[in-house]
Every structure is written in structure tokens, then in C-alpha cells.
Amino acid sequence: MTLYVSVTLVFLLLFYFCSCSSLSAAATSFATDESFDVRQHLSTVSRYGAGKETTIGSYVPSTIPEGCNPIHLNLVARHGTRSPTKKRIKELDQLAIHLDELLNEAKRGEKSLPQKIPSWLSGWQSPWKGRLKGGELISKGEDELYHLALRIRKRFPELFNAEYHPDIFSIRATQVPRASASAVAFGIGLFQGNGTLGPGMHRAFSVTSESRASDVSLRFYDTCETYKEYRKSQEPAVDKFREPILEEIAAELVKRYQINFTKQDVASLWFLCKQEASLLDITDQACNLFTASEVELLEWTDDLELFLLKGYGKSINYHMGLPLLQDVVQSMEQAILAKEENHKPGTFEKARLRFAHAETVVPFTCLLGIFLEGSEFEQIQRDEPLSLPPKPPLPRIWRGSTVAPFGVNNMLVLYQCPGNASHSTSASKGYKSEYYVQVLHNEIPVPMPGCYNTDFCSFEVFKESIVNPHLKHNFESVCTAQAKEEFPSPKPSSIASKLLKFIRSFFQRDSYGSTKINQKNEL
């Protein structure tokens, strides 16, 4: 294993042990705590409702000034709730076989199982047993996107009162079926009642996709070679980090149920818990094996992986999403130009709607600077790494159930305001009107450090403070051979001396006891 992975692994392990907490304090399942809903703790497997209902602190959204009207909307959304993938279905089939072996072992010649063993384990079979395909959008996911469209249309009627044309309402999706199906479910809701098809008066609409090999706007993570190499190098370290946590929980389960669960069993049971709770609303089987503290700890490991491999853990994670950010800004500039030149209604785009994946939405969220605290916005603009999300029970703002649940979406709404709008902070560059941007995450206005910690600021401030600092990079320089100079890997040397230097020089403790790294080229 390379030095880069070794240093990362040591950092993660030290971070874990320095903030360790006892699991033995909570010896009963979360079912005894009526206030604890496991469906709110499933990280990126959470259904959309779990993320939508979570607010960011006590932030009070801006009041849109009188006379300001929305003229364009950008949407970047993840697909809705989906079934397990083919690989994961096979894992659950293997879990069923192994659970049967464990139960037979637990009998130890007795006629019946020990009373501590939950009855559902006996003869359990995966709900997806026999399935040869997976990963498709399920009915719950269709419902999420359909009702999201209904709410958006009701919230911004000025944007969706025009007659449909694909150049006015652009709908784009990746070539993955669950993303395009999500776009279709959304479109059915958005244009319901505006057509002549069937009792619901639906209408046909266009959904466009690019080839997976060339889609740098929505699948940049598939075309960015630098990122793929980075992720491949870090995945083993993240997996190694989970091991002591899984082992600790496995030991607790063995004592609790008198079954010889292994760390792999814990990982598979946690996956089953997430699938049962999110897709089937079953919370009294796999999930009920764990205490609330164990659920929160497993959730945290998932959130940490999201942070390290898709989020603020490394600047390459979000810099590769620049084509998407540039596309969003360009669409707003075109809308402003159309208004300034008094183009006739129905001749310019009013909404650009995109449907993709967590690997798309999370980097875009980071480019906007959402879910940051204190000086972290300045740090990411200097390409400096951030502190890892603190371990439970400490509070954290980075939670997968909020950052990237199924159906997660970021909306950027462009407003046209009178030239003397009282909310103005600077005059627009030669425009007749003032133009402002409001950013919503999961339909909730969210503060952006680059916009004076508000959700509503002038388009010029948005570009100058949030967009332009990222433009010192571009997709080619970040993702091709040139990126080796911009994102260099550490040179080989003595592992012992490197680790000693790393531990002495690059760790510092913040007020919450989490760990920071001050070296630019490390996590």
C-alpha cells in the first residue's frame, strides 16, 4: 500500500481513537426510545422526507423584497429512492445463508434457540431474493420526484405558466435508468394538467442525456481520471477505518444475542437495516438489533465516507464539478440577457432541470459552500482540507441524511428586481434591473458564506465571491495529466519518519475535540 494510503489510514485511526466513546452505556435497542427514529439516521440511503424535514440550525430565510420576481430556475437533483443494486442483492443472499449457519451454531444441540435471539432471524430470507436485476427507481422514488415537481410549480407559478417547449423547460438526465426515470416522474408532475393525454391531461416532454463517456456536466466523476485515481487510493483506507468500529459493535452484539457475529456481519446487517427502513418501512428487524448509539456511530462512518470521497475531504472532489457550475451560471446569464433585451415571453429558457446522482449533487453543494461553519469557506477557497465531521454524540452539520438523501436537490432561483431594490448591495453592471440569486437545498433556503451568510444575494456578488474563486481551476487541468502538478501525491520516503512528522506537525485539536490537518496535499 502506498505511503499516501498509510498516512491517511493512521490519521483516520487516530481520529477514531482520540474521540472514542463507549458503546456499552446503551445496552438496549433503540425501540425503547420512542423519540429515536432510525429513518432519520440512514445517511445517503435516507428517503427524501428525512432530509427535507431537517433544517440547518436556527437559520431564518431571507424575505424576498417586494417587486422581485423569479425569472429562471436551475435544479440539480439526485434520483429518488431506488432498490439495492445487483451486487448488494447478492450480498443479502449470502447474509441469509450465513445467518442460518450462525443460528445452527447458537443452538449447540438444543431443540430451540436461546430466548435472547430475535425470532425474525430464524428462516430469514432477503426481500430481494431471486432478483437478477437491481438499482431501479421504486414507486417511493417516483412519488418523491412527482410531488417535488408539484411543490415547485406551486411555489414558482410565474416560471411554469408558459406553454411547454424543450428549449424553455430543459430536462436533462444521466443515461442511468433511475436518473432518467426520476426526470420522467418529475416531468409528469410539472406538466400535469397542461396536455391532452388521459384523465390527468398529461403531455409528452423531452428528456435528454449525454453518453456516459462524455458527460462532463452530470457524470464528471466518471470522466475525471485524477479523481478516479484518488478515490481508488483512498477507499481501502476508509474501509480500514470502519474495522475497529465494526469490531466493537460486533462484540456488543455477541454479548447481547449470544450469536457469533463478525464485523462483516455487522456491515451487512447495517446495510440491511438501511434498506428495510428506507424502502420497506421495516424498523423492528435488522435495525432493532442495534442500540441508538450504535446506529448513530454507523451513520457517522457512512457520513465520513461521503465527506472524504465526495465532499469537502479533498478539493478534487468538487473541483471536478466545475463544468456543472459553469453551466448553471451560463443559464442565468442567458436569462438576464433575454430580460435586458426585452425578448418576448416564450422565446427564452425559464428552467434547466437536471437529474443525476449523489456523486453529482454533493460536489455541486460543496462548490456553493453549503454546510460550512466559521472560516471553512475561506479554507476551501484556498484548497485547504477541513476538519472531519465530529464523532457522536457531538453535533455535526455534515449529515448524509441532509446532504444527500434520495431525491436531494439544490435549486438556484434567479430574481429580477427593480433597479433601486432596497436589498441591493452593489449596482449591477449596466443592467436596467437588479438580479439576485436565492439558493435552496431540499427546498429550504440555506445560508451561503459567500453571500454574507444569507440565501439571497446579488448575482454579481454570487459570481464574484462563490463562482470566480473556483475558476482558477478548470476541468482539464484538474482531471488530466496536468493535474499531477496541481494535486501531487506525496513522494515515497521512510514511512516511520513520515508518520512521526505527520503526527507531530499536522494534527491540532479544535474546541470540539475533532482533528484537523494542516498539510495541503493530504486529506
Write up what this structure looks like.
With 523 residues, the protein is an alpha+beta fold. Helices cover 42% and strands 9% of the residues. The chain contains 18 helices and nine strands. It has helices at residues 3-18, 48-52, 86-107, 139-155, 177-190, 220-223, 225-257, 263-280, 292-309, 316-319, 322-340, 358-368, 376-381, 400-403, 459-467, 475-479, 483-486, 495-506; strands at residues 69-78, 169-173, 351-356, 409-417, 434-441, 444-445, 456-458, 507-509, 515-517. The strands form two sheets. Strands 1, 2, 3, 4, 5, 6 and 7 form a seven-stranded mixed beta sheet that branches. A hairpin with a 2-residue loop joins strand 5 and strand 6. Helix 1 packs parallel to helix 7 (225-257) and helix 7 (225-257) packs across helix 8. It is globular and about 85 Å long. The two termini are 17 Å apart. InterPro entries: His_Pase_clade-2 (IPR000560), His_PPase_superfam (IPR029033), Histidine_acid_Pase_euk (IPR016274). It is found in: Cell membrane. Disulfide bonds join 68-417, 273-287, 451-457. It comes from Dendrobium chrysotoxum (Orchid). One of its GO terms (molecular function) is acid phosphatase activity.
